[in-house]
């Protein structure tokens, strides 16, 4: 899933593709690089982000979705709002990716059911404005799994078909480093929920923490910072681990690099054919 942020303030590439023209060009480039679907969003949900008015969100994304809908791949809308989801589907989107799992807008689940498109329900402890203030868990994997189970049940009760339901544990959304690592290490435990899993680890801050960039003060003295776009190596490692542990979809900024890594990993895992060597 290639990421198309039509926002001025996304954590990784805020403003880079904020205009419809730039976003459309970026989406087409991601498709050419091998994206299997594109996720178009008009509201940043980075830590500390505030909500965007639905009309403004639609104004940002509709021209992009309309232009990209002629591609031979699904277009997803990344939104927490039912009115935005409905407008995006009318414009050509065929997936809904909701970081709130239907908890932000009480009409979202019924709307997704009526639209009858794949719906991604993500786990987030708290709203983006406050989610990283003080996230706490006993057993993060057990608690996130149970929360996703309950969200999945709510989706089905609202009329979303099981075959349209995708779950996302929400790496980096209301979670500290140790919570993210536990979820990634024990991702197989979420497979028992019986739904496809989507994982978004691309360029996230836990990668910067693991590489120690924040502690490299000599870099900071030279004006070099741990920028999200410099976390590609860690993103590839995390993405491969997610797929090996059962992720069905990975949401990434760097499609070409991630696709190359996945193709090589898949070839190395394939059983050998032909005669052996004595």
What labels describe this entry?
single chain, 278 residues, alpha/beta, TIM Barrel, two-stranded parallel ribbon, 8 strands, 42% helix
Could you explain the architecture of this structure?
- The protein has 278 residues and is α/β, with parallel strands linked by helices.
- The chain has a domain of 98 residues: Alpha-Beta Barrel (TIM Barrel).
- 42% of the residues lie in helices and 10% in strands.
- It contains 11 helices and 8 strands.
- The protein has a 6-stranded parallel beta sheet, with helices on one face.
- Strand 4, helix 4 and strand 5 form a beta-alpha-beta unit.
- Helix 2 packs parallel to helix 3.
- The radius of gyration is 19 Å and the shape is globular.
- It starts with a strand and ends in a 9-residue tail after the last helix.
Task: Give the total of beta strands.
Answer: 8
Q: Quick one: CATH class of the domain at 1-98?
A: Alpha Beta
Q: Return the average pLDDT rounded to an integer.
A: 88
The helix-strand sequence is EHEHEHEHEHEHHEHHHEH
- Roughly how many Å is the radius of gyration? 19 Å
In helices, the fraction of residues equals 40-55%
Q: What is the CATH topology classification name of the domain at 1-98? A: TIM Barrel
CATH-assigned homologous superfamily of the domain at 1-98: Dihydropteroate synthase-like
Uncertain segments: 215-224
Name the structural class: alpha/beta
